Amino acid sequence: MPAWFTDVPILTSAGVFMAFFMTFAACGVLAFRRVSGIIFGAEAEWRDLATLCLQAGVTFFALLLALLSFAAYQNYTDARNAVSAEAAALGVLYREASGYPPGIRNGLQEDLRGYTRHVIADEWDDHQRGWAPESGEPYVREFQNAIFAFRPEGPTQSNLHSASLAAFKDFINARRQRLTAASIGIPGLLWGVLVAGVLTVISLTWFIPVKRTRAHIFLSCSTAFAASLALYSIVAVDRPFKGSVSVPATAFQLVLDTTMR
Question: ∠ CA(211), CA(217), CA(218), 5° rounding?
């Protein structure tokens, strides 16, 4: 989907999206009513043939739509879980850092606060543009160098340091998953197949023999509305960090306001 489509409010984009397909349906009915009569007029079982073809098209399209809906929502869920896991690991790291000697403690905690503020203020804006930002990497490297250079003295510090290293590993994994999720989406080829499928299903409704034009338009537009609504649900969650339906930075803000205050 074009980038501008996910940048507008959800009600606007959804309205434009469904209006396009419903207009396509209504115009097709008006344009093809006579054509369908010419093509199928001599067929005694015109209604049954058109209905059978429509059912076959809907079945294949619905299967593809269901599979891609699940894939898109799974990507959205994975992104949300990665954000929660990264924020939780940051909170654990900050608390673990409080147990270090004063000479290193303040630096570690300040690195974590700086990173969290940067993610909220800068990286999330990049996410909204569809990017996978690496601008927070200097904060990560600075924290990594400081904690790797520390040499624990005694069993208490050794246990604390081991727990901190484990939490740091969890943080790195969650961060990588978040950045990866920012660039994952349904390929353009599949978008083309989905849109072509919706248009095909709508087009098949033009050839159903209905006596009244208004009734025919109503049936075709109803099919277009249902199909486009299902398709839009995939559009809305295709990019987890873009658009009105996106993963927020709430988890990071919560850690910053509570654990890191």
Answer: 100
Amino acid occupying residue 186: I
d(CA 210, CA 244): 40
Block means of pLDDT (10 residues each) for the chain, length 261 residues?
64 87 93 77 67 78 85 89 94 92 90 94 85 86 92 90 93 92 83 88 85 90 91 86 84 93 82
**Which residue pairs, CB below 8 angstroms and at least 24 apart, start in 94-102?**
94/255, 94/259, 94/260, 95/259, 96/160, 96/163, 96/164, 96/167, 97/164, 99/160, 100/150, 100/157, 100/160
pTM, rounded to two decimals: 0.79
The SS3 of residue 222 is helix
Q: Give the tokens for residue 120.
A: 């909220």
Length of the chain (residues): 261
| Closest residue by Cα to residue 150 from 130, 168, 136 | 168
154: left (phi over 0), alpha (psi -120 to 50) or beta: left
